[in-house]
Specification:
By secondary structure, this protein is of the alpha/beta class. It is built from 12 helices and 11 strands. It binds phosphoric acid mono(formamide)ester and norvaline.
Length: 321
């Protein structure tokens, strides 16, 4: 039984298959489609808001021959406290697969364990694997192999999106730089979990810099509060919201703490001349990115959003193959 619960647990081989097949599904969208989900019903069980993930999975399941069943977690007994393991055992007897957006990573893992059906993490507090697979597909579509390239993440470096980027860098062999204030940097234990062969920290006038190497892939991770250092010579500048879903009560503090960790024209100048700018969306102008830079790179950002559909189809296909 295959699941996509995290990039931490996804093999390099499966990542390569998804990245290759996303291009095939994209190229063949208008042709008669391979329908590996024919006769199947897949539930989307969402405890958090979504535009891109929900629509790309609903359309993707439909285009692969299946029927999507959207379940707002608050409308089913799960939202009234029915345990995840009971909901999983019920749904596992009726449907063929599940796509889950929730808070705790353990809920997605328990659902997979108790339901006995393929389960996809559509975002938890810990990871957003489908998003980062799409981002890498989009980068490679525009610029070729990501291996050896420099990806700079700017903003809340401890949320789901940069954490999935960490596991991707460790497996696919690129350099990921995370520029975030100290309190918004990912925990160092994650570097070990990702398989770092060497981690060291240097004190510099601009603050501490953490560097990790991944000998098996050639990947590197740099964590720093020095935004200019992180952006210098980057191939891809990337950001996400400062206030992730579930953190709304911290909004004022986060805006104060993360102020300045923004992609704008001055930051883009530090990156390579042909650097891409990407955003997982939704975007908050004037916070993690400014209006001019967002609009200057809108074509890339909305190609990235469209590519959620093609990548979800490649993920669904992997799980039923
Ligand atoms: N990027 C992303 O996951 O968007 P949604 O929250 O709209 O699904
Ligand atoms: N880090 C964001 C991603 C949104 C797609 C959140 O969890 O809200």
């Amino acid at each position: 039984m295959k699941h996509l619960l995290s990039l931490e647990s996804m093999s390099r081989k499966d990542m390569d298959v998804v990245l290759q097949n996303a291009a095939v599904f994209k190229a063949q969208r208008k042709d008669a489609q391979h329908q590996p989900l024919a006769g199947q019903t897949w539930a989307l069980i969402f405890s958090k808001s979504s535009t891109r993930t929900r629509v790309s999975f609903e359309v993707g399941i439909h285009e692969l021959g299946g029927r999507p069943l959207f379940l707002n977690a608050n409308d089913i007994q799960l939202g009234r406290g029915e345990p995840i393991k009971d909901s999983a055992r019920v749904l596992g007897r009726m449907i063929h697969g599940a796509v889950i957006r929730t808070f705790a990573q353990s809920d997605v893992e328990d659902f997979a364990k108790f339901s006995g059906i393929p389960t996809i993490n559509a975002l938890t507090d810990d990871e957003h694997p489908c998003q980062i697979l799409t981002d890498i597909f989009t980068y490679q579509e525009k610029r070729g192999p990501i291996q050896g390239k420099v990806v700079t993440f700017v903003g809340d470096g401890a949320c789901n999106v940069p954490i999935s980027w960490i596991f991707a860098a460790a497996k696919l062999g690129f350099e990921l730089r995370i520029a975030a204030p100290k309190a918004y940097q990912p925990p160092l234990a994650l570097l070990e979990r990702a398989g770092a062969s060497h981690v060291h920290s240097e004190a510099q006038s601009s603050g501490e810099i953490i560097r990790a190497d991944f000998r098996s892939s050639g990947g590197k991770i740099v964590i720093t509060s020095d935004l200019a250092l992180a952006a210098s010579g980057a191939d891809l500048l990337y950001t996400d919201v400062w206030v992730s879903m579930g953190k709304e009560s911290e909004t004022a503090q986060r805006i104060q703490d993360l102020s300045g960790y923004q992609i704008n024209a001055a930051l883009v100048k530090l990156a390579k001349p042909d650097a891409l700018v990407m955003h997982c969306l939704p975007a908050y102008r004037g916070k993690e990115i400014d209006e001019e830079t967002f609009e200057a790179h809108a074509e890339t950002v909305f190609d990235e959003a469209e590519n959620r559909l093609h990548t979800q189809k490649a993920i669904l296909n992997l799980l039923v193959s």
